[in-house]
Amino acid sequence: MKAELSHDTEFPEEFPRDGLPEVAVMGRSNVGKSSLINALLGRRGLARTSGQPGKTRRIHFYRVGDAVYVVDLPGFGYAAVGRQERRRWKSMVEAYLRGTRGPLRGAVLLVDIRRGPEEEEQQLLDWLRSEQIPVGLALTKSDKLSRSRVLSRLEELGKAVDLPSERVAAVSARTKRGVGAIAGWVGDWTGVELRGPDGRPLADA
Ligand SMILES: Nc1nc2c(ncn2[C@@H]2O[C@H](COP(=O)(O)OP(=O)(O)O)[C@@H](O)[C@H]2O)c(=O)[nH]1
Ligand SMILES: [Mg+2]
Questions:
Q1: What is the pLDDT of residues 59-88, one digit of tens each?
Q2: Is 139 within the bounds of a domain?
Q3: pLDDT digit string, tens, across residues 121-138
Q4: Ligand 1 pocket list (CB less than 6 A)
């Protein structure tokens, strides 16, 4: 499926207006948002990854197959980002989430599997719930833990956020673990079936 960066902005008046469904990808800086988007959309280097956290300050809309936008929101809560920047981040994400966000069909919240959700993530989850936006929790960098540790973290963190097990996935941009689960969520929320370069559906059967 063709995927391209179609809108790159911080201003709500420059968000897409074609009404295509959107799925937001959110989480702390450096948690692996851009890497996961690249794995999901099958294009290395489409979303710019960075060893320097806090660099992405704009909202990136990736249009996939002229059917759906995958939205890379700026990361939050990185210590090196000053107070003013945090305020700017908050107002940007709120503008996105709150504005005329009719097309927002679901949100993938990324949390490092080793860290687990902290206060900001819990707040974001509460807010998404109160707005009745479906949410999935992606536990990133699962390649950093042993298989048994991954399983125990899945159970533990799933409980902590009170999501059904089918909405919690361990993912890795390195091994591509969990990409099928996320594609499944996108399908459930938007009806759009993401496909790999070989044309086969990415979602787990
Ligand atoms: N081991 C491992 N490293 C990852 C994974 N995903 C991202 N990273 C690394 O984490 C850093 C931040 O990734 P990036 O995708 O830019 O995070 P973002 O700030 O949330 O967009 C980079 O150095 C990536 O190489 C993963 O699944 N496994
Ligand atoms: Mg990024």
A1: 899 999 889 999 998 877 655 556 776 677
A2: yes
A3: 888 898 889 888 999 999
A4: 29-35, 49-51, 53, 75, 140-141, 143-144, 172-174
